[in-house]
Design a protein that fits this description.
With 144 residues, the protein is of the alpha+beta class. It is built from four helices and five strands, in the order βααβββαβα. The longest helix is centred in the last third of the chain and has 15 residues.
Length: 144
């Protein structure tokens, strides 16, 4: 089992998106292979994938790294582990790999958000060294 940085699309990756994205979000549509290629082509994006013992994709995480006037920052998004593989360490390995990759990219911090009801995920993030911040998160939906 391993976590790897994936920078090219494949039928296996498209199948994993189709299987995992619905486990992450009821409203998001999985990307097709062309959309995945466009997604991966972005300089700010690192897609980390957890491979199981048979090289099946059991989880993934997106790390976004960007420069702002106060320094380079990274943000973890769309962490998902297949329901059948949860509780076996995949999430922890993905998060550890994301932190290491953010460090390689020169980030000063790594941030993420998680809904309070995602208790297992919140425990994972605390165990991984993340500290809950006293801040408000705001969203302005753009009907795009």
């Amino acid at each position: 089992m391993s976590v790897e940085l994936v920078d090219t699309t494949s039928p296996q990756l498209a199948e994993a998106f189709a299987r995992l994205i619905p486990q992450l979000s009821r409203s998001a549509q999985p990307l097709n292979q062309e959309e995945i290629a466009d997604f991966l082509a972005q300089d700010a994006i690192d897609l980390l994938v957890f491979f199981g013992p048979e090289r099946e994709i059991l989880g993934m995480l997106t790390l976004v790294t960007f420069d702002i006037p106060t320094g380079t920052r990274s943000w973890v998004e769309d962490v998902v582990v297949d329901a059948a593989a949860r509780g076996q360490g995949a999430g922890g390995k993905l998060v550890a790999a994301a932190v290491a990759r953010a460090r390689e990219r020169g980030a000063k911090t790594v941030d993420l958000t998680s809904r309070p009801e995602r208790e297992a995920a919140n425990r994972l993030y605390r165990r991984s060294g993340f500290v809950q911040r006293e801040t408000n998160v705001y969203r302005h939906n753009l009907d795009v």
